[in-house]
Specification:
- The complex is a heterodimer of chains A (215) and B (34).
- Chain A is an alpha+beta fold and 215 residues long.
- Chain A is built from four helices and 13 strands.
- The N terminus and C terminus of chain A are likely disordered.
- Chain B is 0% helix and 59% strand.
- Chain B is flat.
- The mean pLDDT of chain B is 79.
- The chains are: A alpha+beta (215), B mainly beta (34).
- Strand 1 of chain A pairs antiparallel with strand 2 of chain B.
Chain lengths: 215, 34
Amino acid sequence: MTFSYFRLVIVLGSTCVCIRAQDSAAVIVRKAVEAMGGVKTTAKWTGSVRFTMKGTVTISDHAYGAVNENWFQPPNQIKTVLAITQLNGSRELAIDVFDGKRAWRREHDQTAELDAGRRTQVMHGLYSQRVETLLPLIADPAFSVTAIPGAKVDGREALGVRLSSKGQEDIDLFFDKENGLLVKSERMAMDPDRDDVRLEDYFRNYRESVGVSAR
Amino acid sequence: MSVAMFEEGKKVLEMEMVSLKFVDHIPDGEFVKP
């Protein structure tokens, strides 16, 4: 598991921003921010946040129960605690902490500091989370946003953009063509159990939470 | 949901947010060596 399992929910309201295929990448992103409640609402995601997620992790066709607690503080402090219920009913904990300079992983009752390569991947995960708030893409000139071919995501038409920024790996984002919401991101990442992998994040079941379009 | 693709398969983490709280500040003590 990596730090980047920071995945959520939002609202599917009745908003229809009706993105058109010929829209530019910048327009697609602006419409997505609008679909998520506008700049003021979306900005809440750039502050400090605590959240808990529950679900399953499936590895080699085995599904395990999982609870994921998260603390995030901009610009780059993060802590995640992932508890996985094993087949025998016991719980396995994996704790990841990045204090802004150093990063550690604790599992099997042992703590190890992450080497520079894995720390870079953690930072890229944080970068990815920042990108997925969408705000930097319309406010930060350091980001380059270009349109890429669309795709079908969960059976629905989606328009794509590619985010590039100096020193960072590209991230592809896909937005529902009808309602404008972010439905998928795709990037290279490092998995602690493997080396580089292609990581796809799908965003579904948006719903309103604590006054914001929470995802 | 996160899907990490491997040559011989994939790892799928499917999660739903069950609680969310925006806060002014999280103490640095939360982000220390575990």
